[in-house]
């Protein structure tokens, strides 16, 4: 072991015993986690969560657990759009930036979707046979008695 390496180890050991921390290495990955619930704060199981990078084609998705929670791990640092959807609820989208050393926790309160109902009315037009029409005189209300 060289004298230089021995000196470095001695300084690290002395710094650790004195309460001085050694420099931390920045991470290039993080995680995104959260919970999805309805307006009454009941968890929504099976909601679809999509994390889409704003600067690349990277996309990660997951469905929420029975308790409405989700966790996306090993997410590269950067800017993303997070979208949550579930049948019967309005979708929510939120922008976010994942920075080194962070693990953001999101709470999505999905609103019940508006009921959409449509009625379709169709008619068939037919041809009237002029010979089958019966002409009758109109009775007037001013007719004499």
Written overview of the protein:
This protein is mainly beta and about 140 residues long. The chain has a domain at about 25-110: Immunoglobulin-like (Sandwich), CATH 2.60.40. It is about 10% helix and about 35% strand. It contains 1 helix and 7 strands, in the order H-E-E-E-E-E-E-E. It has one helix at about 5-15; strands at about 30-35, 50-55, 60-65, 70-75, 80-85, 90-100, 105-110. Strands 3-2-5-6 form a 4-stranded antiparallel β-sheet, with no helix packed on it. A 3-stranded mixed β-sheet has the order 4-1-7, with no helix packed on it. Strand 5 and strand 6 form a beta hairpin. The longest helix is centred in the N-terminal third of the chain and has 15 residues, at about 5-15. It is rod-shaped, with a radius of gyration of 35 Å.
List the helices and strands and how they pair.
Layout: H1 3-17, E1 29-37, E2 48-53, E3 59-63, E4 69-76, E5 78-85, E6 92-98, E7 105-109
Parallel strand pairs: 1-7
Antiparallel strand pairs: 1-4, 2-3, 2-5, 5-6
């Amino acid at each position: 072991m060289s004298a230089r390496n021995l000196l470095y180890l001695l300084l690290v050991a002395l710094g650790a015993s004195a309460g001085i921390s050694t420099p931390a290495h920045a991470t290039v990955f993080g995680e995104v986690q959260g919970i999805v619930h309805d307006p009454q704060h009941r968890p929504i199981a099976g909601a679809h969560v999509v994390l889409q990078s704003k600067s690349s084609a990277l996309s990660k998705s997951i469905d929420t657990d029975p308790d409405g929670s989700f966790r996306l791990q090993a997410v590269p640092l950067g800017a993303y759009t997070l979208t949550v959807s579930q049948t019967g609820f309005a979708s929510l989208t939120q922008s976010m930036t994942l920075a080194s050393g962070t693990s953001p926790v999101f709470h999505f309160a999905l609103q019940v979707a508006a009921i959409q109902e449509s009625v379709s009315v169709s008619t068939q037009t037919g041809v009237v046979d002029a010979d089958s029409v019966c002409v009758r005189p109109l009775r007037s209300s001013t007719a004499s008695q």
